[in-house]
User: Fold this.
Amino acid sequence: MTSGNSDNPIQSVYADDPDMADLVRLFVSELPDRIASFERAWRERRVEDLARLAHQLKGAGSGYGYPGITQAAAELERELRELSAPQGVADVRDELDTLLDVCRRAMKACG
Assistant:
């Protein structure tokens, strides 16, 4: 998956829904902590934690109207589940970078 133009902020499909606005803002406000968790798990090569974090973000992205986050998280999770050994985690760096980029773009939109 390509990350597209990483300079462009992305908005939730619920951006104009007053009933969802506060929930979307709360989700986006938690993204920095999620990114930090991904980066920490990456540094420590904790494949199962990375896969769990990706799985959680896949569902949350969908629920809060971020199909790009859902897609990137699903791809990372799939790649992690297919690893034959924990040492192969370096092979999924592109997918992790794509996911983190999409999360940062969502954060820009909520600025």
The first helix runs from residue 21 to 29. The chain is about 65% helix and 0% strand. Helices lie at 21-29, 31-43, 47-63, 67-81, 93-110. The mean pLDDT is 90.
